[in-house]
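Q: Hi! First time doing this. I have a protein sequence and I read that you can turn it into a structure. Is that right? Here it is:
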Amino acid sequence: MKVPPGDAIPVAPAFPGGGLDALPPAEMARRAADVGRVKATLPIASMFALAVLAGAFIAMGAIFATTVTANGTELPYGVARLLAGLVFSLGLILVVIAGAELFTGNNLIVMAWASRRVSTVELARNWAVVYTGNFVGAIATAALMFGTQQHTFGRGAVGAQALAIASAKTGLGFGQAVALGVMCNALVCMAVWLCYSARTTTDRILAIVLPIAAFVAAGFEHSVANMYFIPIGLFVKSDAGFVASLDSLPDLSGLTWGAFFVDNLIPVTIGNIVGGTLLVGALYWFVYLRPARAGGAVRS
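A: Yes, that's right. Below is the predicted 3D structure, encoded as structure tokens:
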């Protein structure tokens, strides 16, 4: 089966008789290994460009979530978080449907690696290039958004919400951030996994929305999303005049670039890798692909 680059998942042909039934889990596993092989062997330039797009796409979801939850909504906490999650799902929808390379979703390449169709070098190269590209796309989007002065909209409500989100994320303990990252990417990779059963664009969108809404509503931590959420908060914090104009502020003393990397991005990334590779990719490989031991590239 020929698979296009990026996280776009090929539409499988209809069953005889015109049926469009979803693929069963065993077929999903084989499809995941096929896609993983293609992702790991993309040309570096294409891989990086698609990764930059994915970082920007996830940032778009973060912008959407920040905006719709600004200005102290009177909705109950859980309902407000659910609303944030539903709109944030735009990010992964864009990644999967438009085609892009997202580090957290690419943790599923471990299924192709375990099947010996992808080498260790190819796996590490993909993760390194994609993670870097995601960072570039997300932080560039944050810089562009700061330039738009969108944080001043709603009488400063959007900027105040950006500061509150960033401050909360840099205030997490290391172990807490790891655990929240594990839970987050288990759900993100489940969303991508469910897409492997899909035959239409509508199927994929429906498969994505609830797992992504769940991780956002529950307050789990996504490394690529945080490449936008925390830098935009840092950029807004640098606008001294705007910050001084706000009536109430969270404690911003812990919101620093050092805290971004050490207290959030590093532990959350570790958690994301554990959640995606072990709790989803490795388990489904063990159940559906382990006996086959498909041939291909030998690990090095």
